[in-house]
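Board notes (copied after class):
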Amino acid sequence: MVKKIFAVLLSAVLIACMFTGCSGGAKMTEENVTKTVEKAEAALKDFDIDALKKYVDSPTLSMIYSYAEKHEQLRNIGKVLFENLELEIVNIDLENSQVTLKVTNKDMADIAKEFATQLKSDNTTVQLLAKLNNEVFLDASYYSLRDKVKASDKMQEETEVTLTILQGKKNLALSFDNESENIVSGGALSAIKKIFS
């Protein structure tokens, strides 16, 4: 009788663990952090929106990919900004849920500033929003930026950035603030935001 009760209780605990994950979310281990950095880097380079939503927590990028979901050209602009990105882990601090990365990308601050300045000088904000449905405009904008980025040089120095690691139910994610967003984009995001602020 005692064995039956024990077996029933053990079964109940196992079933509860299966439904709740028993771990309270993704485990914060060096292996999982390393995999998360690799997944986040691949998501940025491909501008894979589903993967970005899963592995990258970033207010600016969230706004960009909400538009990019509807327009392939905007997704391609995202790819142009990050296709030369390289992330190398310098340190994993599990106690503080942080990872320090060495970042390299092309130097795109001046390119992005020129790109955004041209858009703003030719259009009001309302006109620009209306042009988000204009395929010819989006194509021309994408090709213009792509060609300038291809002709640009890599950043002269690698930059280190420390990111917070978020623990979700199924996976870990990297949390980017304004400064770290700007670093991984080669200075592009800050340059664009300054023009349109």
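Comment from the instructor: Confidence is low (pLDDT under 50) at residues 1-24. The beta strands are 56-57, 86-93, 98-104, 159-167, 172-175.
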